[in-house]
Design brief:
The complex is a heterodimer of chains A (544) and B (98).
Chain A: H1 6-27, H2 33-41, E1 45-47, E2 52-56, E3 62-64, H3 65-77, E4 82-85, E5 91-96, H4 98-109, E6 127-128, H5 143-153, E7 168-171, E8 185-191, E9 197-203, E10 216-222, H6 226-240, H7 251-258, H8 260-274, H9 283-291, H10 311-320, E11 321-323, E12 329-334, E13 345-347, H11 348-361, E14 365-368, E15 374-380, H12 384-393, E16 408-409, H13 424-433, H14 437-443, E17 448-451, E18 465-472, E19 475-482, E20 494-495, H15 502-519, H16 526-533, H17 536-543
Parallel strand pairs in A: 6-7, 7-8, 16-17, 17-18
Antiparallel strand pairs in A: 1-2, 2-5, 3-14, 4-5, 4-13, 8-9, 9-10, 11-12, 12-15, 14-15, 18-19, 19-20
Chain B: E1 2-8, E2 14-17, E3 22-23, H1 37-45, E4 49-60, E5 63-66, H2 69-76
Antiparallel strand pairs in B: 1-2, 1-4, 2-3, 4-5
The chains are: A alpha+beta (544), B alpha+beta (98).
């Protein structure tokens, strides 16, 4: 994985001291909150319901064991012994003190981490495929390109005061595991007829209060032009976006207003203006970055067979373990969705354990997924049983990947100042209702996603079943959506009708699932059945 | 009743105006009536509280209760982590916010 050079480290260290000075001045009363707020947000420090919250960037969700251990240390030393993995492959701490925030950033800097551009109107952490470099279905590892765009856009002066936040995803497989088309800018690595490497470029996706699946803007962009084209997209948006209404300033609104064709014309025209300036990153730099992602030294003699005689282990392998590109290896998914747990939360001890196990079994590397789980990308098949036993002993082996209890949920009203309703208790009640392991597996892939407000951090628009918490005259109410997907068949869920109270939404999910079981044909997932039969039968079951 | 609340500047903790100081406990909150603007400015200037504001509340047998659920969650703590609320020994405390 990427390692800082002296410039990276110097920049991050300098930023820590700059923020320390800013925080001290705020505490000393030399700055008002209005003056300080944009500065703290540029360093990932929010003020939430109960305390300050710090969001730490995990670039494209990849980190090593040393970094993971530091995340555990911070949870113990400065927070309350746990942390929350987010739907953008980052991590959040809920109980931060302003007077300690700079010390945390200093500790993070010692392991090449920071919280820069995890908030505010900036280019946020670049997302990618959690199976990058391990899955057989990718054209190349997308992470060097994600890293290149991260470097090129970090501290970029032209993109410091943008209309709103901006999210980029880079993938390299037909199977989209990063919700690429729900980002402001999506890159999919492809090869053209000549075998040359390039990108399909998608612009204007997003969730929030006005969700859109991004249209294809360019079907082949040579890889060497990744940054100049990004620059063109950002410039067009920066120049033409509204700045009078915070809810209408994302690039998706501009794409929606103009249509994909006009957006494409403007971007292409801007790009032609930029190209002679040679702003693209030299190929040598991409090669330098790529050396950090060459992959571990796999054992060519690793055994293929897995002893599946332990039935519980077999269930975990069947559900949570995915094929690896190298013989004798597998991709192991660690679900952070235990029964009665909080989606995405992990204790400091669990974080430490995952760091230790990754060092022992997965070449010292971990991935965070947008579904709030952890991935060990390179595990020898012969090590899977030992790994599973250690995970299971620590409550880290729920065998529910992509099942109904593998719920994505934002922190909701239990933690978030923007939320209108609690997400986590609803997730817990649904998980409890469907706790029968065999019953869950019988339902098959069913992605349930819950947001506590219209900002959609819980990705409810892209849930096969989505739930949106709203404020209805001062009480929590929940709308049900069906038919969304964040995968390669991206689509937005539709609201079924009037909302439900907290217990009612759990019943509504059960009714919906029962109707699916009644209607499904052989091999159909919930989403397939919904797309075949439409909303009507579900609506009838829910409201008649 | 009107209640003043905000977050402690240094620690970020939720705090409530007691009439003479700030407390972490909603039970200590007092009704400040309608003329609280000067008090808000005074306390913010004193750097004891970050962005204080007034909320509606009601008097109950158990003490002041914020009118809005969001402020009740602020007053108690996360309902999904009873151990981290201000009433960790009371497993039913979460019902207070509903």
């Amino acid at each position: 994985m990427y390692q800082y050079d002296k410039y990276d480290q110097k920049m991050v260290d300098a930023r820590v001291e700059e923020f320390r000075d800013q925080a001290n001045r705020r505490i000393a009363g030399e700055m008002t909150e209005d003056q300080f707020k944009p500065l703290r947000l540029k360093n990932g420090l929010y003020l939430q319901l109960h305390a300050y919250m710090l969001r730490v960037a995990i670039p494209y969700g990849t980190l090593n064991s040393r970094q993971m251990r530091m995340l555990a240390t911070i949870a113990r030393k400065y927070d309350r012994g746990y942390a929350h993995f987010t739907t953008r492959q980052n991590i959040q701490y809920n109980w931060i003190k302003l007077e300690q925030a700079a010390d945390i950033l200093a500790d993070l800097a010692t392991v090449e981490m920071h919280a820069i551009q995890t908030s505010g109107e900036s280019i946020r952490n670049v997302s990618s495929d959690q199976y990058a470099g391990a899955t057989a279905d990718e054209i190349v590892d997308p992470r060097p390109y994600a890293e290149l765009i991260r470097q090129a856009t970090s501290f970029h002066p032209e993109f410091s005061y943008m209309p709103r936040k901006f999210k980029i995803a880079v993938i390299a497989s037909d199977e989209d595991r990063a919700a690429m088309r729900l980002h402001d800018l999506g890159f999919k690595l492809v090869r053209n007829d000549k075998g040359e490497l390039g990108f399909e470029v998608y612009v204007g996706g997003g969730m929030g209060r006005t969700p859109f699946v991004s249209p294809l803007i360019r079907d082949f962009l040579p890889v060497e032009h990744m940054f100049s084209y990004t620059e063109a997209v950002l410039r067009v948006w920066n120049r033409w976006a509204r700045r009078d209404n915070i809810h209408k300033q994302r690039i998706k609104i501009l794409v929606h207003q103009w249509g994909a064709e006009k957006m494409k014309e403007r971007i292409e025209a801007e790009w032609q203006e930029i190209l002679p300036n040679a702003s693209d990153i030299p190929h040598k730099e991409l090669e330098r970055i790529a050396t950090y992602f060459e992959g571990p030294a796999f054992d060519d003699n690793a055994a293929e067979d897995i002893d599946l005689s332990d039935p519980d282990f077999k269930i975990w392998v069947d559900q949570n373990v995915k094929p690896h590109k190298h013989p004798g290896y597998a991709i192991a998914n660690i679900s952070l969705k235990p029964a009665e747990g909080i989606p995405g939360d992990a204790s400091a001890d669990q974080i430490d354990l995952m760091a230790d196990l990754a060092e022992q079994y997965s070449f010292d590397e971990l991935r965070v997924t947008h579904a709030q789980n952890i991935v060990f990308a390179h595990v020898k098949k012969s090590d899977l049983y030992a790994l599973w036993q250690k995970l299971d002993a620590a409550g880290l082996a729920p065998a529910n990947l992509d099942l109904i209890s593998d719920i994505i949920a934002c922190p909701g009203l239990d933690y978030c100042s923007l939320a209108n309703a609690r997400s986590i208790p609803v997730a817990q009640k649904i998980a409890e209702r469907f706790s029968d392991a065999e019953g869950q597996r019988d339902l098959g892939e069913l992605k349930l996603k819950i947001s506590g407000c219209i900002n959609a951090c819980g990705h409810h628009h892209s849930g096969h079943i989505g739930i949106l918490g709203v404020d209805r005259k001062g009480t929590e109410n929940y709308q049900l959506l069906l038919g969304g997907s964040g995968a390669e068949d991206a689509s937005l869920g539709k609201i079924t009708g009037p909302g439900f109270d907290e217990d009612g939404i759990v019943d509504a999910v059960e009714t919906t699932v029962s109707k699916y079981k009644e209607l499904r044909e052989d091999g159909e997932r919930f989403l397939d059945t919904y797309r075949r039969v439409g909303m009507a039968p579900f609506k009838e079951a829910l409201y008649d | 009743m009107k209640i003043l609340t905000g977050n402690d500047l240094k620690t970020g903790e939720v705090i409530w105006w007691t009439g003479s100081d700030w407390s972490r406990h909603i039970e200590d909150a007092v009704d400040v009536g309608e003329n609280f603007e000067a008090l808000l400015h005074q306390e913010e200037a004193a750097r004891r509280v970050n962005t204080p504001y007034a909320i509606d509340g009601e008097v109950t047998e158990d003490g002041p209760r914020p009118a809005h659920i969001k402020d009740r969650v602020r007053a108690l703590g996360p309902t999904v982590r009873p151990d981290l609320t201000l009433k960790p020994a009371d497993p039913e405390a979460g019902n207070w916010i509903i």
